[in-house]
Amino acid sequence: MFLKTLIRDRVYSLLVLLIIVSIVAAIIFPATFPTFGNVSQLLLNLSIDTIVAVGMMILLISGVFDLSVGSIVAFTGCLTAYLMEFYSLPVPIALVLGLCSALMIGWLNGYLIAYQGINPMIQTLAMMGIVRGGALLVSGSGIQNLPYWFNAIGQSRLLGIQMPVWYMLLVVFLFAFLTNKTIFFRRYYFIGSNEKAADLSGIRVKRMKLFAFMLSAALAGVAGILLSSRLGTALPTMGRGLELRVITAVILGGASLSGGSGKITGALMGALFMGVVANIMVIARVSGYWQEIILGIILILTLWADNLVQRRYKLNL
Amino acid sequence: MMMNGRDMFIRSLVRYRLICFLIAGIVIGCELPPRNSATITRAVSVGDSVRVGNEEYVMITTAVTMPMYVHHDQAAFIKWGKARGVKVSILGPAEWDVPAQINTIEEVIGTRPTGLLINGTDPAIAQAINKAVAAGIPTVVYDSDIPNSDRHAFLGTDWYEIGRMQGEEMVKLIGSKGKVAYMGILGLTNMEQGFLGMLDVFKNYPGIEVVGKYDDKANVETAARITSDVLSAHPDIAGFCGFDSNSGPGIALAVKEAGKAGKVKITTVDWEPEHLALVKDGTISMLAGQKRELFTWYGAQFLFDMVHQTNRLSHSDAAAGITNVPSTINTGLLKITRENVDEFIK
Amino acid sequence: MIIPRIDIADISKSFPGVKALKHVSLSVAAGEVHALCGENGAGKSTLMNILSGNLQPDEGQIFLNGNAFVSNGPRDALRAGIAVVFQHLSLAEEVSVAENIFVNQQPVNRFGLIDHALLNKNSRILLEELNIELDPSSIVGSLSPAQRQMVEIAKALAKDPQVLILDEPTASLTDESIRVLFEIIVRLKKRGTSVIYISHRLAEIFEIADRVSVLKDGEFKGTFPRKGLSREELIQRMVGREIKTVPRTRDESGEVILDVAGLSSHKFSNISFSLRSGEIVGMAGLIGAGRTEIARAIFGIDNYNEGEVRLRGKAIKLSHPIDAIRHGIGYVTEDRKKLGLFQEMTVTDNIAVSKAESTTESNFVDKYAALRLASDYRTRLSIATSSLDQLTVSLSGGNQQKVLLAKWLATSPEVLIIDEPTHGVDVGAKQEIYNILTDLARNGLALIVISSELPELLSLCDRILVVRRGEISGVLSAGEATEEMILSLAM
């Protein structure tokens, strides 16, 4: 019974895999891998991706995805920095305006996809280019010397761990709770499982989809603000390739492109697994050429093994 | 029963005691970042912690797979490692991703390498460099300087000079008058410096009209497409200046296809084999080349000299808080034209 | 001795945990129409998959014209002359009828390119021969389900098979097309083609089959000549138990719950009728007459231009199904897979979803309440499921239908619209569903039943509305209605 849940639930199987990988890494690199500094650093490095991954997980549960999140990360960070730098707006107002811009982008994505029937991939692909261009437009080559209190958002520490890690945990557990416990967020599972049936069951599918795109964009906006606060700089190149990295993490964490499955904690586990593997490769001094190859192989292997197990499980039913 | 707002507030405070304590705890426990990062950087005790004989020098860049980086920067670094008999590693993301480069630097700091050679891709990496320096790791920046950081040394090219060199050559080539367009990756600090240098030269020549600044996204096809658009919009265009590795080949392709090779002048950067071939056949008039091999060879050597205290300047340079290698090195530029191009073709 | 066309000898097949076929032996003669009966899960599909080469038997052999026939896949079976028309359509939607019919065997010209003129000509000949009125160059995606089914049959016949297997061929056919199909079968019979006919509709079996074989729980229960076999006898052999029918007591005294007045849209016009509590009103008509469209409008899925829907005398505004649900209207759709079930979700989730939407009391999921609800309905509707956490995809058609019924009953509706209540449901479960519906009506629920099976409507309903081309062409009371009357109003 225990083994069955272990095999069927990706969150648990990934956790076991993660523990094994970590133990092996700790044995091989006892001085560098299992240290507080390294672990808090690797958590910090994956915190931005994970916050975006939570929004992406909700989208994938409902059977759609958003390729523009990486650009939204850059745009929100740059716009917020721009407002503080060139209009001398106070930090909180700039933050609110930055997040509103992310929400606007999400609204546009969601409206065109849910209400006008544009294909999500095409819509968000187009938006990815538009928003990236917008980020370049507002920030030029990047905006440095951001206000102290803005930098404090991402650079403060709690219990020796930098704040983005705590924000990430907050976002993950908040949405894990919401998707588990609230009727509102549970609807995404029904929508992803059968969109038409969900509509006929009384779920306002279009409205829910619009909301999901806005939520994902808002989380990407939060990630963009955190990233530029952590770097102390807003760069128009932030979040390049982030969308695919995040989709990879989310699929690794148990989502399926056809919708209906996945858990928020799975998004965390997927990102954590990728972060740990990347960290081990840095420690082992594996060159950047190999990192992406190895991550790609891991993704294919995981899905393939999963497919085998699921098929056997179904036959046994 | 009616309650006023204050009572309500207090009641809810009591009810959510636990959460209030938690929030208070977080606020108190929160440790804000230092106001000015430079002030807390302690005197670096370089050399104290070095395990000589078990040395490892790590280069961290972004876009590690970019051919120009591989053939120049990384090749020279690896060659240096072999010559010195020490271990060298090259790390960083495969794509141009500055935050990922920062993540890599911060993760590498924890593994305590002997020295760090960092590609100065963006001012945003200053904090990561400061962390490395604060951790006592000798840190050298190459390619572009990160002026607001505590790096021990910098080697690189002055991009403003690259711009000036291109500008001056272009003025000569087109006889001080005509329309000029330029392109590169917009939004990169060093490129913007280069643009500035070129424009400062053009300012002195009222006969020169700059018709456009374009983003070729470091992509040959994009550069070619932009060029052919400009050629049809301005049939009388006199010259193009390119600022990234792929600008030159892209511009040259479109100019050749328009049958204007040699008539429309091209200057650009870098001296990869394809650039050299285009100079050889006369499509490109001049290349402003960087001495990238020198960045990493001497950069690594500086790290080595810091670690081994090759040139000690005091009883203890670490205690004195000084760095015993040059602070800023301009490796200078190569000017490659049809006259000397054969010397570079392998 | 006459060698049978196909001889299935002692075939067994098991899947992990299930013995799907146990020593099944039956034979089909040349030119015979052989019906295969059994409830869902009896092993019919497994047997068909073995014949068509999709599965290999564990034991036993198949003889084709006396020769042992071993197939390693559908291609082998096709080459040997066994063609299957599956229940689930296998057509490419974006491609023409002709290309679908001659898929992989399109005629080519001397450059090796598809000769479209010849292809269309061949298709036209074939379609004419089959008496199917279709333009070979039309795109399959634009056809009605009935027309697609005919294309599917033409596709199988294009290979000129010796054995044609039809798996529920009439499920999406109109009565006219069924006539056409039966004519085709009669002609094939004359040509010596053997036809294996699988259907839940006993009337059809009695009309077309020469002999009937019965499977139950993977066991072969014998082959019987149609002549001399009674309907009751056949059902009893299939089900293995007697089916109780609860007699419907008709009570006219309920108050009017639903009032539809002059409803019009581009799909139907001037639809007016009223529905009393405890009443079952049937909607008859040909496929495409607009019955489903009327139901969709009453449920708030599609808009209507004119008229209004009144609930207990008060006009209600319907812009989304949720409005209808909150007013106490439920709608069990026809297409369970596409529009009804969340197949990869549990029985509990499926039952609880609409109730959670209909109440606004709490924003939080109450897992125990959902479980209680599901377990309550499992008992009340006797849904056969190993656990409430079972995924609905693995349930039989009848149990899936009961899950959908439970989902709507959980919203405590006053009006329930049911579109094809027994579509793809086997005989035993059919009767159970009838009993449930009658029971609900007795407890005051007002029901609208849309069905293409006339006997179903006649036995179940108090009144029958006949819909023709988007208009109500007649209202018949249960006492006076006959199949002929309904058909004459519907055509």
The average pLDDT score of chain A comes to 86
Q: Mean of residue pLDDT of chain B?
A: 84
Helix fraction of chain A, binned, reads: over 70%
- What's the story with the biggest beta sheet of chain B? 6 strands, parallel
Largest interface: A-B, 46 and 45 residues
Biggest sheet of chain A, strands in spatial order?
Answer: 1-2
The number of distinct structural domains of chain A comes to 1
What is the end-to-end distance of chain A? 14 Å
Q: What is the count of helical runs of chain A? A: 14
Order of helices and strands of chain A: HHHHHHHEEHHHHHHH
Helix content of chain B: 40-55%
CATH architectural category of chain A: Orthogonal Bundle
- Rounded to the nearest angstrom, the distance between the terminal CA atoms of chain B is 93 Å
Ranges of chain B with pLDDT <50 over ≥5 residues?
37-51
In total, the number of strands of chain A is 2
Main pleated-sheet profile of chain A: 2 strands, antiparallel
The number of distinct helices of chain B, counting runs of at least 4 residues, comes to 13
Provide key terms for this protein.
heterotrimer, A: 317 residues, ABC transporter involved in vitamin B12 uptake, BtuC, two-stranded antiparallel ribbon, B: 346 residues, alpha/beta
Description:
The complex is a heterotrimer of chains A (317), B (346) and C (491). Chain A has 317 residues and is mainly α. Chain A has a single domain (2-310), classed as Orthogonal Bundle (ABC transporter involved in vitamin B12 uptake, BtuC). Chain A is 78% helix and 1% strand. Chain A has helices at 2-8, 10-28, 36-61, 69-86, 91-115, 120-139, 148-155, 163-181, 183-193, 195-200, 205-231, 242-252, 264-283, 288-316; strands spanning 157-158, 161-162. Chain A has a two-stranded antiparallel sheet. In chain A, a hairpin with a 2-residue loop joins strand 1 and strand 2. In chain A, helix 2 (10-28) runs parallel beside helix 13, helix 4 (69-86) packs antiparallel against helix 5 (91-115) and helix 7 packs across helix 11. Chain A is globular and about 60 Å long. Chain B is globular, with a radius of gyration of 26 Å. Chain B starts with a helix and ends in a 10-residue tail after the last strand. The relative contact order of chain B is 0.13. By secondary structure, chain C is α/β, with parallel strands linked by helices. In chain C, a hairpin with a 2-residue loop joins strand 14 (306-311) and strand 15 (314-316). The model of chain C has no long low-confidence stretch (mean pLDDT 81). Chains A and B meet through helix 3, helix 7, strand 1, helix 13 and helix 14 of A and strand 1, strand 3, helix 5 and helix 8 of B.
